[in-house]
Amino acid sequence: MSGARSTTAFRPRRLAAVARKEFIHVLRDPRALGIAIVLPMIMLLIFGYALTMDLDRVPLAVWDQSRTPQSRELVSRFEGSRYFSLVARPDSYREVEASLAGGRTMMAVVIPVEFGRRVASGRTTAVQVLADGSDANTTTLALSYAESVVRGYSQEILVERIRRLTGRPPALPLDLRFRSWFNTDMESRIFIVPGLIAVIMMLITALLTSLTVAREWETGTMEQLVSTPLRGTELILGKLVPYFTIGMLDMLLSVLAGRFLFGVPIRGSLVLLFLVSAIYLVGALSLGILISAKAKTQLLASQFAFVATFLPAFLLSGFMFDIRNMPKALQVLTYLIPARYFVAFLRGLYLKGTGLAQLWPECLLMVLFGALMLLAAIHSFRKRLD
Amino acid sequence: MDTIRTLALTRRFGEQVALDQLTLSVAEGEIFGLVGPDGAGKTTTMRLLTGILAPSSGEAWVDGLHVVREAEPIKERIGYMSQRFGLYPDLTVLENLDFYADLYEVPTSGRGARVDRLLAFSNLAPFKRRLAGNLSGGMKQKLGLACALVHTPRVLFLDEPTNGVDPVSRRDFWRILYQLQQERVTIFVSTAYLDEAERCNRIGLLHQGRLLACDTVDGVKGLLEGTLLEVRCDTPRRAAGILRSADLGRVALFGDRIHVLAGDPDRGRTAIEGALRAEGISCHSLAAIEPTLEDVFTSTLPGGDA
């Protein structure tokens, strides 16, 4: 009888049976469909609109003790800047403090009594800027805006003084001509959306697959499955097929939303974009299955999937925080986060239109990640209960 | 050749011995019942024989194949129904059957006829488009059995298949098993119900991982040495206590009946009547009866007088 030999062989039909069954699970479970299709869109909308790192209309308080033409000129420069919005005019340090502490303003400019007199007489004079430093990043940004407003005014006074002395305006020694490439308007959305796609892909796929093997252990169907001739490769690949399809659909939806909702242009090759995404997807899905197979309960698996995929993808991939600004040890750690390569790849492809010529190391590492995870997932499946 | 053969099959979980040196054999076409209370080691035995759990020591063969070295070929020839409902509640009856038919590579040609036969056989035909999760307990078990039979296995392992199933469905279920036996399928079934065990050709009594007895039902009943006397009286609980302290033989209480295992029927009868009369209890009836498996079980179990 040839039966003894035939069981050990790979059977596409058994793989197809598992894939079909998994498709039915997803299609008949509104929660799974929600995670698969609705959640990525919500994340894209929330992060795309809310997670803007651009700063404008910083609420500002000005205490002008000088009340001179010179001080009013400085105040009007703050008012005229799109970065500031004058919301309070306190009359004492107590009021300044109250407005900062209450969160009504983020920054206060205090102009001393002697400001107008000293400026008129050509002496150096101080302007005090108080800022709410709780949010260090925003404050740093706001301070640099304030500094440029004050410096601009200061420079004009200087130019005016020299013109009066020499009869003609001086030529400034350096003239900065600034032009931003790739993201010409310097909108953070254009920078955020590609990275966001990487994070969403990682989270959705791991969340979806993390439940699939654990559920079979929990409900007892796994005991039935391991008593059949089904092989580990057939089971794992069969489970991957439907989630891969959903993942690619999510990818397509995200790319479309990025392009038409957020107006993020794609400068690189679409073929390369989807090809590399497919490879990344296989890795992320396999990681989810690996977690699921090890955890054996759905609750543990989904929690572990969240910690193991979403958090590193969100925090350590360079999506939120620039890797170059991280402590050395964390920087080394980021090399182990596959999302890091996908974020770099997507940004390169989206913003700069770079292809394999520049991005091959990232692509190679993602292929490596995908292959390793897939092998580990298949290997993690034991046809025994112990 | 025996279809199932085990030799000192043992499985430990840490310190605990779940199955201790099990040696038995089951002939082809036989219905063998593994009988024992919860925790006796029935499920462990099932899992060892189906090749999904590795033994700590000992050997076992199913249909001539070794359960460890040839576990995968075994899986092609057996049908297994685990104790928990192992089917997908969000798939219909037909989808579940189809899924298992694919796993066992049942050829698509002729599969329709096979599936129809299984559905008719299990009275599930009217429900074939119903989700498995919406079936009653009895129907779920019959669907489980149908899925385990979809590839016409040579050996069938059923782990407490009628647990929690109503009596009518239970009878249906056994009718199916007898039909399978006609087709020379070997059936290895575990149960905690003693009345169900009486339907098997041969049984093994399992307690705390040990095989206490293994024989035909009558043979096992014959292990009971002495005569079984059944006493009916007004205060059975109190009477059982009195008889126990009188040390007349093993005493077991079954509802309002007291069973006493007496060495000699006549002397036992006199002693029982005397002991009860001394306490002011009169017997309604006192007669020698045929033992049931329950009697055997309660008398073989160490300290197991119910």
UniProtKB/TrEMBL annotation, chain A:
Keywords attached to this entry: Cell membrane, Membrane, Transmembrane, Transmembrane helix, Transport
Chain segments annotated as transmembrane: 32-51, 190-214, 240-262, 269-293, 299-321, 333-351, 357-378
Major localization class: membrane
Domain of life: Bacteria
Residue stretches making up the ABC transmembrane type-2 domain: 143-384
InterPro entries: ABC-2_transporter_component, ABC2_TM, ABC2_TM_bact-type
Keyword set includes Transmembrane helix: yes
Pfam families per the UniProt record, alphabetical: ABC2_membrane_3
Family designation: Belongs to the ABC-2 integral membrane protein family.
PANTHER family: MEMBRANE COMPONENT OF ABC TRANSPORTER YHHJ-RELATED (PTHR30294), MULTIDRUG ABC TRANSPORTER PERMEASE YBHS-RELATED (PTHR30294:SF29)
Record-given protein name: Membrane protein
Source species: Geothrix rubra
Gene: ybhS
From TrEMBL, chain B:
GO terms for MF: ATP binding
Listed Pfam families: ABC_tran
Presence of the UniProt keyword Cell division in the record: no
Cross-referenced InterPro entries: AAA+_ATPase, ABC_transporter-like_ATP-bd, ABC_transporter-like_CS, P-loop_NTPase
Keyword Ligase: no
Source taxon at top rank: Bacteria
Domain named ABC transporter: residues: 4-233
Coiled coil (residue ranges): none
Gene3D superfamilies to which the protein is assigned, alphabetical: P-loop containing nucleotide triphosphate hydrolases (3.40.50.300)
PROSITE patterns: ABC_TRANSPORTER_1, ABC_TRANSPORTER_2
Protein name: ABC transporter ATP-binding protein
Organism: Geothrix rubra
